[in-house]
Amino acid sequence: MDTQRPHPLVIVKLGSTFEALRARQGDFEHWIADGLGVQALPLLVVDPRRGDALPDPALVSGVVVTGSHAMVSHREPWSEATAAWLAQVVALDTPVLGICYGHQLLAHALGGEAGDHPHGAEVGTVTVSLDEAAAAADPLLNGLPARFPAHAVHWQSALRLPEGAVRLAGNEHEPIHAFRVGRHAWGVQFHPEFDADAMRGYIEMLAGELASKGADPVAMRERVVDTDAAASLLGRFARIVETRHGVA
Questions:
Q1: What's 34's domain CATH number?
Q2: What is the DSSP letter of 162?
Q3: Which end of the chain has fewer CB within 10 Å, C or N?
């Protein structure tokens, strides 16, 4: 390792939020960077969709993979290339956090399966329940409440986990809201980077589609609350990365 210049914590940008939200709140990578609160490591944002080269897996300190409005099952070339790269990163035991699309892509990259959720979309502030025995031994989720609110927007899901993966959290709609592979690679289906305004914004943008499926967007919006426990995962992840590199 180059002790003079720490390797970056990489945000792999695989999607963008709605333009109206981006104009007033920034985009996924900004929300994630704010939540990470990294002080001692450089942050690097790469966007494979626009042709950015993914860095050498051996030259990154950690990786966060963003959400996307795309679908993992569509197997876009940029997505499949990122999946292959993620498998290399995980093989090096480099910390990885996949969020929503990133969660599903991590499962796919390591031999699991991602696809349409059999019961349709999950949108809004939902309750996530830990598998308490698994979470108690987990470096990222240990110490979270047994049940906590989190923001979710997804039509697809990690339908099957990779061999050896540990399920960490779920709920009645989504049995795999969090999992870990190996010691330091996590996927979370919910969005720790969303604040309440972002969640309300998504409900507003999707209101017509949600109503056409029989949901009540007004009631969903009223149920949005702050999700401090879920949001804390970004900072927790950053501290894991920094500690492993001796800069915490």
A1: 3.40.50.880
A2: P
A3: N
Give me the helices (H) in 111-181, please.
132-136
Structural domain includes residue 1: no
Residue 204 lies in a domain: yes
Q: What range defines the domain where residue 151 resides? A: 9-244
Query: What letters, b where the CB count within 10 A reaches 16 and e where it falls short, cover 96-125?
Result: bbbbbbbbbbbbbbbebebbebeeebbbbb
How many CA atoms within 13 Å lie on the side-chain side of 177?
26
Active-site residue flag, 177: no
- What confidence tens digit (pLDDT) does each residue in 105-140 have? 999 999 999 999 999 999 999 999 999 999 999 999
CB distance 85 to 54 below 8 Å: yes
Identified catalytic residue from 7, 100, 174, 242: 100
Task: Assess whether 191 carries a catalytic annotation.
Answer: yes
Distances (CA, A) of 7 to 80, 82, 152: 24, 19, 31
Which one from 29, 122, 174, 193 is the annotated catalytic residue?
A: 193
Q: Over the stretch 40-57, which tens digit does the pLDDT of each residue have?
A: 899 999 999 999 999 999
Tokens representing 26 are: 């920034």
Q: Is residue 3, in this structure, part of any structural domain at all?
A: no
Active site residue 184: no
| Total domains, the chain | 1
Q: What are the tens digits of pLDDT across the range 55-110?
A: 999 999 999 999 999 999 999 999 999 999 999 999 999 999 999 999 999 999 99
pTM of the entire predicted model: 0.96
Kindly tell me if the per-residue pLDDT of 2 is higher than 70.
Answer: no
Kindly name the residue from 7, 151, 184, 191 that is annotated as catalytic.
191
Residue 2 lies in a domain: no
